[in-house]
Every structure is written in C-alpha cells, then in structure tokens.
Amino acid sequence: MRILLTNDDGIQAPGIRILAERLGKIHEVFVSAPRVQMSSCSHRVTYFRHDLDVQEEEVPGAVQAWSVDGTPADCVYAACYGLLETRPDLVISGINQGQNISMDAHYSGTVAAAREGLIIGIPSMAVSLASNRYGDFGPSAEITERLLEKYLQDPCCAEYLLNVNVPAVPADQIAGLRITHFEMPYGYDHDMVRLDEDSGHFVLHTVSGRLRTENAQADPDGDLTAVRNNYVSLTPLGLDQVMHDHEDRLREKNVFAAERRYAE
What we know:
By secondary structure, the protein is of the alpha/beta class. The protein is built from seven helices and 13 strands. It has a nine-stranded mixed β-sheet with strand order 3-4-2-1-5-6-7-13-8, with helices on both faces. A two-stranded antiparallel ribbon has the order 9-12. A hairpin with a 6-residue loop joins strand 10 and strand 11. The protein starts with a strand and ends in an 11-residue tail after the last helix.
C-alpha cells in the first residue's frame, strides 16, 4: 500500500527514519516531514499565509522524501495536494519521541498531522513512544507495522484516527494492547510566570513540568494507566469536538433563555 509518513520531530529524527526503513521493505513509503523540530505546535497551519519551501531528501526505505519548511499539518497538506501524484492509502505520524496521552494530544503536532490526514479523508495513525529519553524505536515500529493492516480492515477507519502510545520498555515486556480513552483529570505542574526585576517584563522561565496525578484515580480503560502497566494504548480520536450531552442539556433546560434579545 501507499503510506505517507510525517512527524513533528523533524525529518532527521530517528523515529520516522526507523519506521520508513521498516515499512519500506513491504510498502510504498513516502515521507513529508518538517525541516526542523516542530513539537507541541498542535494543528497550526501556515500554508495559506506564505509559500512552503520544499526540498527533496534522502530517507532510507522511502520512494521519495521531502522536508517542508512548515508545520506537521502543512506537511500532510502539501503531500496530499501537491507532492504526491496519488493520495496515500494511509497517513502515519511518528514515531514521536514522547507520549501523546490525554491532554498531551491537544498540544501535539504528531496527533495534528494525523488529524489533517483524517480531514482530507485518509485513514491516519499517530504513533508515539512514551518517553522523552528512551531510544529504542524498534518495538514501536514493529507494533505499527502489525497494527496498520488491522486498522485499515476496519470499515470505519476513515471516521477516526488511531492514537497509539507505546510503553518505553523492551518488546518482551510489552503486556499487550488496550483500547483506551483519555484519562482525566491529570496535568502538569509548571513554574509560574515571574516578573524579571531587571527588565520589568514578565518572563515564562520554563514550559515543562512534573506530571501531576495525585488527584487522578487509575482508570482501567484510560490511556495513562494502560501505558503505565506496559500496555500499548490505542485511542480512537474523531473530528467532532461537540459535547453532545451538554448540547442536549442546554437546549432542553433552555439555560440561555434570559438572553431575550437573541431568542428565536
């Protein structure tokens, strides 16, 4: 099959290159990835503001590869609407260095690239290795290869992207696969924005923090719990962000009835 690979770590990142080399032995692989590190840029796009500079690259395992001076979403858009003669059967974003679990997925350029594929109408996967330091991408690449055909065999695969998080352990320690959902609440403790006395400006000194889980209860079907127990987390994510329960509640209870000026 024809597979488009992208990421947010940049075209030189080891995760995407290991995946290209593995999948390229069986499939027709193309790579369109950011020229530089673009982590945590979410679904930002720049293609409608300025022309994207695209350069051909050599990536082992890929039929063709391009580095794009843009975001991960830009890369998918550029490939599907310009670089490729035929649209791919599948978009895979990754393998990302670092987890994209629960709230992380909202910030993730990796997940956004897969979402862009889904918007275009192509089944898409986002694959992440749940560690910022663990460097063995082999198990993640093997799992991705095993999952992609099962994913495409699902007649509903074009309705959701598959967000895959692989625990950072050797292959023989991976306990299995779990279908999961976002695990809430949890978040990060960040350093506060502080006033720099010398300049008088407010300065954000760090954008990283310690994972905060003290108020979170272990959820057997949660993505965080799955990865912590050495399971591969598989979370189906869609494009519809509407909270339909609240939509129905607001309509039925007429919560905003006091705004007579805008009443129907």
